[in-house]
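Subject: Protein record for review, amino acid sequence with backbone structure tokens
Why sent: The fold of this protein is of interest and is recorded here as tokens.
Notation: Tokens come from a learned vocabulary of local backbone shapes, not from coordinates.
Attached in line: The record itself begins immediately under this heading.
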Amino acid sequence: MRKTVTNFYDVDDVKKMMKDVLRDEKVVTKDDLQQELSKYATKDDLVSFKDTILHELQAIRDNQELITGYKDQIENHDVRIEHIEKHLHLAQPD
């Protein structure tokens, strides 16, 4: 017959020994782990953050495309404004 712990100790003794070990050794429990891990971001948090960043990046790209489409008009706006002021005989600031 193979010897096991239960052959020498009854269940109450084993429970008492386990309680003593847990109390003395400061063993980490599941609740301790959950409390410690709650400080860190979860997978859902990271996915949500990534989604937010990608939406912002898309908005930046859309704005860049819009600006690129009107690049020539934006670059020479000073010349165009002066031409309009001359045509309408408006006073030009010095």
